[in-house]
Design a protein that fits this description.
48% helix, 5 strands, alpha/beta
């Protein structure tokens, strides 16, 4: 499988870009990697890159977008932050990926058993460890937790039901933030030039489900 070129990227629709990732995850789950010469792809992309998708995922070591979607060099822009949420810099990276570099798809990829979200649920204990920047990160999830937690429900990472609801709502909230905070991306989506979708990776099975 060869690296994408300007010509091949130009023919990809948002729907086709999504299909590429779905097919790639099926290969990953079935342990059937596409045949790639990575050094050849290094050579093919030395003058430029033409990725077809932007994937925002967690820094979790199990959630490498290139691996779980079976993609090669130059195929995807991979943005990673603990808890897969957006901020102004990440939105700027997405705008570059889509409006400048021509990507056709944005995927917000959450995953099961997310440590950042567990930290958000256990914020009181984490804050006691005295890590100021980590405290800032995990407090990002408080508004979502407050929205979804039920009356008298245990706020704890041990509450697996709450953790998974938080995982999925966090993905949806990130998508909402992209549309609200980036008129560039919102307009590209409205014009049909890109799609913005959410997905969830299961760390036990390797399978991606689409929200």
């Amino acid at each position: 499988m060869k690296a994408h070129t300007y010509e091949t990227q130009s023919t990809i629709t948002p729907e086709k870009a999504l299909e590429f990732l779905k097919e790639g995850n099926q290969r990953f789950v079935n342990n059937l990697k596409a045949n790639r010469d990575l050094l050849e792809q290094v050579n093919a992309t030395r003058e430029g890159q033409w990725p077809f998708a932007v994937v925002l995922s967690c820094i979790d070591s199990r959630t490498s977008a290139e691996l779980i979607f079976d993609q090669g060099l130059g195929d995807v822009f991979s943005i990673r932050i603990a808890g897969n949420f957006v901020n102004q810099d990440i939105l700027g990276s997405m705008e570059f990926g889509c409006n400048v570099a021509g990507s056709k798809l944005i995927v917000v990829l959450g995953h099961t058993k997310c440590g950042a979200l567990k930290g958000g649920l256990d914020a009181a204990q984490i804050e006691g460890l005295g890590m100021d920047n980590l405290n800032h990160l995990i407090n990002h999830f408080n508004p979502i937790i407050n929205d979804i937690i039920e009356e008298n429900e245990e706020r704890s990472s041990k509450n697996s039901s709450l953790l998974e609801r938080l995982n999925q709502q966090n993905v949806r909230s990130a998508i909402e933030d992209i549309r609200k905070q980036s008129s560039t991306l919102k307009n590209l989506e409205a014009e049909g030039k890109i799609k913005i979708v959410g997905a969830n990776y299961d760390v036990e099975t390797g399978a991606v489900t689409w929200l």
